[in-house]
Design a protein that fits this description.
The complex is a heterotrimer of chains A (361), B (357) and C (332).
Chain A: H1 3-9, H2 15-26, H3 35-45, E1 51-54, E2 60-64, E3 72-79, E4 84-90, E5 95-101, E6 112-116, E7 121-125, E8 149-150, E9 164-167, E10 172-174, E11 177-180, H4 183-197, E12 203-210, H5 218-227, E13 231-239, E14 263-264, H6 275-287, E15 293-294, H7 304-307, E16 316-323, E17 331-334, H8 335-350
Parallel strand pairs in A: 3-12, 3-13, 13-16, 14-15
Antiparallel strand pairs in A: 1-2, 2-12, 4-5, 4-9, 5-8, 6-7, 6-9, 7-8, 10-11, 11-17, 14-16
Helix pairs in contact in A: 2-4, 6-8
Chain B: H1 2-11, H2 22-32, E1 38-41, E2 47-51, E3 61-67, E4 72-79, E5 82-88, E6 100-104, E7 108-114, E8 136-138, H3 143-149, E9 155-158, E10 163-165, E11 169-172, H4 175-191, E12 199-205, H5 213-222, E13 226-234, E14 253-256, H6 262-275, E15 280-283, H7 291-295, E16 304-311, E17 319-322, H8 323-338, H9 344-347
Parallel strand pairs in B: 3-12, 3-13, 13-16, 14-15
Antiparallel strand pairs in B: 1-2, 2-12, 4-5, 4-9, 6-7, 6-9, 7-8, 10-11, 11-17, 14-16
Helix pairs in contact in B: 1-4, 4-8, 6-8
Chain C: H1 2-9, H2 19-29, E1 35-38, E2 44-48, E3 57-63, E4 68-74, E5 79-85, E6 97-100, E7 105-110, E8 125-128, E9 144-147, E10 152-153, E11 157-160, H3 163-178, E12 185-191, H4 199-208, E13 212-219, E14 239-244, E15 247-248, H5 251-263, E16 269-272, H6 279-284, E17 292-298, E18 307-310, H7 311-326
Helix pairs in contact in C: 1-3, 3-7
Classes of the chains: A alpha+beta (361), B alpha+beta (357), C alpha+beta (332).
């Protein structure tokens, strides 16, 4: 395809896409119980898919055939699960002990409203009144052990041990920003749905909507094994820590920055991205004048960590939408960064062929 | 009662931080105006509403004070489009990360209190509860727009919407102390069907959370015979279970201690017993932490009492009260007021009142 | 104004012992006063003008007391132990010089420290006036001293002890001299004992019973290396106080000040101070209460013997206050 054609086919991020993102963000799918998001994905994707199935862990695996012969088989992964809570002990009078699923800083829990169970019943994680604390006490975070989910006194039989819960955040847009819970990785999921609906014709698109990324990349591992692609791109969200530093020195540990476009990974704790794929993304980004940035090498990981080691090895790279305050009640991302991520991944797929991997890594 | 519940939910959805109570005052004024004879505003913004009694002049008067100000945050600086802030009233910094707020700039803006990652903080803060001066409010807007819309001194109120939870409870911010304002409203509504000899001053005070300013100035102006503060008190809940706490939904509290005149305490207690209104005793050895602490020592001094409404998670955005307790407090006030005899003050002493339990 | 400030700051007058500084102020203001009096707390109260249509009874307050020390015991070798008057920080004491009301000079010494990196506690320090016995010691229990540093003029910046709050006393004096045709009945109060709890202003406010209270006091800045996070700086104009550790300024007063500054093109800053408070707090809750606010002078190194201000901020503070009280003030 010529560049002009590619440009005109890039899926847009309009009102419909934002509404879908809102639905995905407000849905509750804590790692291990991804059914709500899975149902939304199935509903959106099924009429566009050539093949769609749900595997043993709950991954949704979609195949969209190419319109050319012998197409290169490309896997794109985005995870459906989010961090959250599980109720583990009923102490009576509406008070429940709970545990965290995935990684959430204790300090983000206090004083927050939550939604519990399939019926999304409202509850709160309260805190001891400040008047009954000492200054010393307030220096230390309240241990998880002391926190409870409070559904209100009275005989509430509707919530039970084993129910999942999340922060009660509702999706909003604030000026140029997208604001909601679980945008890590509902942004990836929403992007992948658009790719399924408007798949580039030159590749066989293997779209994997994975589960249990937040508790060990478990869904991606088996999805990669069964899809057996030639190459994989992972769509995720990564923290933008571009906040002011206390002493107003330059912030050299920002990870990624808002408004600088999709972030390409070189190195994280789980993966050394295939440089050939990085070069391809960069080439496409420059050619189409799409802003992009590099995620600072360091900790963290994406589904690529599990994917690239499957079978005989699968060349992989991750691309993330920058977002501030990941794994808290609210994540803030810029709409422009999402748009540019959409552009970069679509154009990169449209321009992808086996030549990219013809040189050895 | 549903109407009062809706008024309460409306009241806790409004900003009205200490020093800036006008939005809350307007709603309270609208609720009280049809229930009283006179209504005015004090020089520092407290609402004074008078229901005249039928006794011969000069009539004794009872002042019911509930503070209408609430805690919140105030912008102290703008850095790279993010807002630095401090507290108005007592805010435990541990409830702040991830808190939704509304920033009252040149227009109202949604905002989020955010905690920088540990490695961007000073070593002393890492892993600890991060001090307020290291946190920011993020409005999602770019720097130039923030500079146009927000300035130092602008307020940020908690944005938590009211929730109705199990057990006929209401959850939200500013239930400290808008639930007491609602209790006074309930009392005024009850008085509509009753006859009382004493004048009743319903006062929504200002600045209790910061200076007790309303508590110091309103009695000076109104010169009542007796002053009662209605404020929230600590309900038992996770992390709060000792002698300073009382049961949620088990009735309003009657304070016992130097800030409560024992004769007035007994008057309310006898009434609660007689009418079988559930109540609890609250032992307050020192500062009651309410307007009564100020009111008691204004000018020549006033006999004071404190009626408490149990509240869980005080000073967080998810405070919880039982609607029944609010109702009981309002009813106890009304029933006690109508039985105050014209010569009640002559009988009042500071002598030993036997605590019968 | 510089020579006026020098005269004021170099006078000794810790809280409770403001007699000398009050006389210095009186000499400056006498001829501008319609009425002048001293009350039971030692406040100097100057009345100017009558309330005209649209006018208010306005009390302006700047405190003339400073922090200091008082002798608790002179030991047999002539060393004087002391306690503090107001917020004196121990780390500003060791090696500092003090000047007693009776003119005696002294130096603050300290007991030996186990760790030279520690700061002496007040109880571990003493004042050495060069005496060798209690008999030949020129000071005795109850004697009062202020920290002693000469006034320095650096051009735009001025350094001295007691800039808190003598610079604002100077601001009020200049405002009094400048104001003409005000619609308000004005009370310029040079208050006492602010540093120990706003005591002078409390009683003055009760007696005057004004409609509006405006204090003028120093505030801190955030413009020094790794300093406190505060968006107030020297030289950027007088600070209009929104909130401090003891008070929320009446929003209508803040707005009136902001609008006045904008109208007269006077530079200003908005101030939120995390610790400390002023006479405005006492005025706000006096009697039935009143709208209150404060025009602050940004100051570095507050409560040390070398506080620093910017002369331009002082001149602009005078302009702002003069303009504010020369026009009606809308508190509706």
């Amino acid at each position: 395809m010529k560049n002009n054609e590619i440009l005109s086919q890039i899926p847009e991020i309009g009102e419909e896409q934002i509404k879908l993102l809102e639905k995905l963000s407000n849905a509750v799918s804590v790692s291990g119980d991804e059914s709500e998001v899975r149902n939304i994905v199935m509903e959106e994707a099924k009429e566009f898919a050539d093949n769609i199935r749900v595997d043993a862990l709950g991954n949704v695996l979609v195949t969209k055939k190419a319109k050319v012969d012998d197409p290169v088989r490309v896997m794109i992964a985005a995870h459906m699960d989010e961090v959250g809570f599980m109720l583990v002990d009923d102490e009576g009078e509406g008070l429940f002990k709970f545990e965290i699923v995935g990684g959430i800083d204790n300090r983000q829990l206090v004083g927050k409203p939550v939604l519990v169970g399939k019926e999304k019943l409202p509850g709160v994680i309260g805190a001891k009144p400040i008047h009954l604390t000492t200054a010393d006490e307030r220096k230390n975070p309240i241990p998880l052990d002391s926190l409870r989910i409070d559904m209100g006194p009275g005989n509430l039989k509707k919530c039970k041990v084993g129910d999942r819960a999340t922060f009660a955040t509702r999706f909003e847009t604030w000026g140029p920003s997208l604001v909601g819970k679980a945008l890590d990785d509902r942004l990836g999921v929403a992007t992948l749905i658009e790719l399924v609906k408007h798949a580039p014709e030159n590749i066989e698109l293997l779209a994997a909507f994975t589960v249990q990324e937040e508790n060990g990349l478990r869904g991606a591992r088996i999805a990669a094994y069964s899809m057996n692609p030639e190459v994989a791109f992972v769509l995720d969200s990564t923290p933008a820590n571009d906040l002011p530093v206390w002493d107003e020195e330059e912030n050299g540990r920002y990870n990624v920055k808002l408004n600088h476009g999709p972030a390409i990974y070189r190195l994280d704790a789980a993966t050394l991205s295939d440089p050939r794929l990085i070069d391809h993304l960069v080439k496409v980004g420059d050619e189409f004048k799409i802003p992009y940035q590099f995620r600072q090498p360091g900790k963290g990981g994406t589904d690529a960590g599990a994917i690239h080691k499957q079978r005989g090895g699968i060349p992989s790279v991750s691309i993330s939408v920058p977002g501030r305050y990941a794994h808290t009640a609210v994540l803030i991302a810029r709409k422009a960064d999402w748009e540019n991520t959409m552009k970069l991944i679509f154009a990169s797929l449209a321009k992808f062929n086996r030549d990219v991997l013809s040189v050895d890594r | 009662m549903t109407e009062l519940k809706e008024t309460l939910k409306q009241l806790i959805s409004l900003p009205g931080l200490s020093g800036y109570e006008a939005p809350a005052r307007e709603v309270i004024r609208a609720a009280w105006e049809p229930l009283v004879d006179e209504i005015s505003v004090s020089p520092i913004g407290s609402l004074h509403a008078l229901r005249r009694g039928i006794g011969p002049e000069p009539r004794p008067s009872i002042l019911l004070a509930a503070h209408m100000d609430a805690i919140g945050l105030m912008v102290t600086g703008i850095q790279e489009g993010l807002l630095r802030f401090t507290e108005v009233g007592g805010v435990d910094p541990r409830i702040l990360p991830g808190l939704r707020v509304t920033v009252h700039g040149r227009k109202d803006l949604p905002g989020l209190v955010v905690q920088p990652p540990d490695y961007l903080l000073e070593p002393a803060q890492r892993g600890k509860s991060v001090g307020m001066d290291h946190l920011f409010i993020d409005t999602g807007l770019e720097e130039d727009e923030v500079k146009e819309l927000v300035r130092i001194g602008d307020l940020a109120s908690f944005a938590q919407e009211p929730l109705e939870l199990s057990g006929k409870t209401i959850v939200g911010h500013s239930l400290d102390n808008r639930v007491s304002v609602a209790a006074i409203t309930y009392c005024l509504q009850e008085l509509q069907h009753m006859v009382h000899t004493w004048d009743v001053w319903a006062v929504a005070t200002v600045q209790e959370e910061e200076t007790l300013g309303g508590g110091f100035t309103s009695p000076f102006e109104l010169n009542p015979t007796v002053a009662v503060a209605i404020d929230v008190t600590f309900a038992k809940g996770p992390g709060a279970n000792d002698w300073r706490t009382v049961g949620l939904s088990k009735g309003p509290t009657l304070a016992w201690g130097p800030n409560a005149h024992p004769y007035i305490h007994k008057k309310f207690l006898d009434m609660a017993e007689q009418l079988e209104i559930p109540y609890q005793k609250e032992y307050v050895p020192r500062h009651s932490g309410t307007d009564a602490y100020a009111m008691q020592v204004v000018a020549g001094g006033f006999p004071t009492m404190v009626i408490g409404i149990p509240l869980r998670y005080m000073h967080t955005p998810v405070e919880m009260i039982a609607l029944k307790d609010m109702e009981r407090a309002g009813r106890l006030l009304a029933e006690t007021i109508v039985r105050l005899e014209v010569d009640f003050m002559e009988k009042i002493t500071w002598d030993e009142v036997k605590d019968e339990e | 104004m510089k020579s006026l400030i020098k005269k004021l700051v170099e006078t000794v007058g810790p809280s409770g012992y403001e007699l000398k500084i009050r006389e210095v102020v009186r000499a400056e203001v006498e001829k501008y006063a319609d009425e002048i009096s001293v009350d039971a707390m030692g406040n100097l109260i100057v009345k100017k003008g009558e309330k005209k249509e649209g006018g208010l009874k306005v009390m302006l307050s700047a405190h003339i007391d400073e922090i200091g020390v008082m002798v608790t015991h002179v030991d047999k070798n002539g060393f004087a132990r002391f306690t503090t008057i107001g917020g004196v920080r121990p780390h500003t004491c060791y090696g500092s010089r003090v000047r007693f009301l009776n003119g005696t000079a002294g130096v603050i010494g300290g007991e030996r420290l186990d760790d030279a990196n520690h700061v002496h506690a007040i109880e571990a320090m003493y004042i050495d006036v060069g005496a060798s016995s209690v008999e030949d010691c020129p000071v005795k229990i109850g004697d009062v001293a202020a920290f002693d540093r000469p006034f320095e003029d650096l051009g735009n910046r001025l350094i001295s002890k007691a800039m808190d709050d003598r610079v604002c006393a100077a601001v009020l004096i200049e405002t009094l001299k400048n104001v003409k045709n005000s619609p308000h009945e004005l009370y310029f109060v040079f208050s006492t004992q602010e540093e120990v709890g706003l005591r002078g202003a409390t009683t003055a406010a009760y007696a005057i019973d004004p409609d509006l209270g405006i204090a003028s006091d120093v505030t801190m800045t955030g413009d020094t290396p790794r300093g406190m996070k505060m968006d107030v700086a020297l030289g950027k104009g007088p600070a209009i106080k929104v909130k401090d550790g003891g008070m929320l300024a009446d929003p209508k007063v803040v707005d009136a000040m902001v609008q006045c500054a904008q109208k007269h093109e006077i530079p200003y800053q908005l101030e939120v101070l995390l610790g400390g408070t002023t006479d405005a707090k006492a005025m706000q809750i006096s009697r039935a209460g009143m709208p209150a606010g404060c025009v602050s002078v940004p100051t570095r190194y507050v409560h040390t013997p070398s506080e620093m201000v910017d002369i331009n901020d002082l001149n602009n503070a005078v302009k702002l206050l003069t303009a504010l009280i020369s026009e009606p003030i809308n508190l509706a």
